[in-house]
Amino acid sequence: MSKKYLETIKANDGVIYHIEFHQLRLDTALNAKGIHNLHILLSPPSSGLYRCRVVYDKQNIQINYFSYVKRSVKSLKILIDDDIKYEHKYENREKIDSLFEKREECDDILIVKNGLITDTSIANIAFFDGVDWISPKKPLLKGTTRARLLKERKLILKDIRKDDLKAFTKAALMNAMIDFDIIAEDKIEELIC
Description:
Layout lengths: L4 E8 L2 E2 L2 H12 L7 H4 L7 E8 L4 E7 L8 E5 L13 H7 L7 E6 L2 E5 L3 E5 L4 E4 L7 H8 L4 E3 L11 E6 L3 E7 L8
Parallel strand pairs: 5-6, 9-10
Antiparallel strand pairs: 1-2, 1-3, 3-4, 6-7, 8-9, 8-11, 11-12
């Protein structure tokens, strides 16, 4: 039984965003080019904001469209898990979902692996040091928005430890649906609950 992979792609009023980054990740996950061509297969609704959910393996692809409403994230609970692995965007998110359930009163989680900040449950993260936006060098998942912002030279990669957070003035989440969303300014310590 093969693993099922997942892509979440933004479509607004029929326009698909940054499809080339999703196609590259799909091709990388399958270790082959051209098995599924997203440019041909995607046909989102012509009106409204949608999350295109693409579940695939080498033999099959399933595409669904869901109306999208952004989830508000104003607080993060730091959780440590040195065993978690999520190097590809898998349909099975059981381990991440299990950690998310431990967030208590917080909106989301900030996962620490081997002493280093990685990601939240739904997004890569970046922190502003007053000059540059810094993103973890070793995320759980190398997201498509992160890849695009790195290519555009808008992010710098560094190892970030929990104690490093106090040196930052802003925090932002990034994923295909929210792009680059600043969730904390000036009082970053208030983000951590």
